[in-house]
Write a structure and sequence with these properties.
- There is one protein chain.
- The protein has about 280 residues and is of the alpha/beta class.
- Helix content is about 50%, strand content about 10%.
- The chain is built from 12 helices and 6 strands.
- Strands 3-2-1-4-5-6 form a 6-stranded parallel beta sheet, with helices on both faces.
- The chain is globular, with a radius of gyration of 19 Å.
- The two termini are about 30 Å apart.
- About 45% of the residues are buried.
């Protein structure tokens, strides 16, 4: 008679890895949208906010490439330039995008309410804190400095340009875990406001938490969100929750402020032998 031993992690959560825009800073994740719409307008092609948001969470050159592959934008580019966009065009657009995005990030670097308190909770419970982003490393120096001044400085910060492939591949998250010396991916929670970020966490083997209100899915800044009626808020919340649930997120919450209760629930599930 033979027995199969199945190893299960039953310890506590040891690390949380956050996205940046729409998750810990920039309520509404508006910095990328403003940069993409400005970039394309500067090149004779108007794109909508909704179109700009479709590839959100990806590395930014890939984001540009995916926008140009969208049928309406592809045709608008042909109408404006007489031919389809080439790889050289994408390279030029990306170079032009960097200063535009850097300036927008500097404007939109305020912490989302609840971020500092949630990070303090994690620190008090000996949980390591990482951050990763689809931004390039040469875009975020002011962002990092500004977040640190507001009390948020992750133990590890990884950009899409630091790894072979950005989201939805798990490379950024794995690099975070290597830098933080995390032993078990089952003890890790990935928190993100984009579907690509949830896919990154799932592909890495971590628990995943989607943020429905503060980021890409609703896409409103804090003042705009608070100006909605309760019925309007609930309608937008319902759509966002459903999107994350269809993507396979283990949990969906409004903002990072709601995370501590999720951590407690995950630890209960781990103690019972449940895995992500």
């Amino acid at each position: 008679m033979s027995f199969t031993y199945v190893r299960k992690y039953t310890g506590p959560v040891t690390a949380v890895v956050f996205d940046w825009a729409g998750t810990t800073i920039d309520f509404g994740s508006l910095a990328p949208v403003k940069a993409f719409t400005a970039l394309f307008a500067n090149n004779g092609v108007e794109i909508s906010v909704a179109e700009a948001r479709v590839p959100m969470g990806l590395e930014k050159r890939e984001h540009i490439a995916q926008l140009l592959a969208m049928p309406r934008i592809r045709q608008a580019w042909i109408d404006a330039h007489g031919a389809e966009a080439t790889e050289a065009d994408i390279d030029r657009l990306y170079v032009d995008f960097i200063p535009v995005q850097t300036a927008m990030i500097a404007e939109r670097s305020s912490l989302i309410p609840g971020t500092a308190e949630t990070v303090a909770f994690l620190r008090e419970n000996n949980i390591k804190v990482g951050g990763n982003t689809g931004y390039a490393s040469n875009m975020i120096q002011d962002m990092l400095a500004g977040a640190a001044e507001q009390g948020y400085a992750p133990d590890s910060c990884v950009c899409a340009t630091d790894v072979p492939r950005g989201r939805p591949y798990p490379h950024m998250l794995w690099k975070n875990l290597l830098e933080m010396e995390v032993e078990a991916v089952q003890s890790v929670v990935k928190v993100d406001d984009t579907i690509a970020g949830i896919e990154e966490g799932l592909n890495a083997g971590a628990w995943t938490v989607g943020l429905a209100v503060s980021g890409n899915e609703v896409g409103l800044d804090l003042a705009e969100w608070e100006a909605l009626s309760e019925a309007e808020q609930e309608a937008k919340r319902e759509v966002a929750y459903a999107r994350f649930q269809r993507a396979g997120a283990h949990y969906v919450i409004d903002t990072v402020a709601d995370l501590p209760a999720v951590i407690a629930d995950i630890e209960d599930r781990l103690a019972e032998g449940e895995q992500p």
